[in-house]
Amino acid sequence: MSPIFLDAIALTYRPDLDVLFLRWPQPVYAFTPREVYQQVLELAQETNARYWLFDVRSRGPLSQEDIAWLRESYFPTLHGQLGHITHVAYLLTPAHSKDPETKESAMQMRALPWYGKGADFEGFTSEPDALLWLKSCQLAEVER
């Protein structure tokens, strides 16, 4: 599938890797994060993609409202909309990965009832490590 570009956001599904990529190379003002995440969901539905890599190193921080929406609306409903668990690898800057607020937010999300059932995620500072984790998720599901 050819990439979809939303004002400098590249959204692509790679069937050879079975990974949906969202590359957010700069802060984008023409679309809200919710609109971008909706485009991700639509592409995931079209391709049955359950392994996602989100490169958010240059995206900039999300608002508290958008974080709450992801936590309370988006991720909890993924399983119902897609019919399977979705594994999301976030590609972060080293500073972002060490940020106490980011760590706390991730820890809080991991404690929510949907985590590990409808969706799960990990943060990485290298794309090969992120892809390796997604591959391990794929292999774990094959072994079940």
Describe the structure concisely for a colleague.
The chain is α/β, with parallel strands linked by helices and 144 residues long.
How would you describe this protein?
This protein is an alpha/beta fold and 144 residues long. The chain has one domain (4-65, 72-95, 106-124, 134-143): Transcription Regulator spoIIAA (2-Layer Sandwich). Helix content is 47%, strand content 20%. The protein has five helices and six strands. It has helices at 33-47, 64-82, 94-98, 100-110, 127-143, and strands at 4-5, 10-14, 19-23, 51-55, 86-91, 119-124. Strands 1-2-3-4-5-6 form a six-stranded mixed sheet, with helices on both faces. Helix 1 (33-47) runs parallel beside helix 2. It is globular and about 35 Å long.
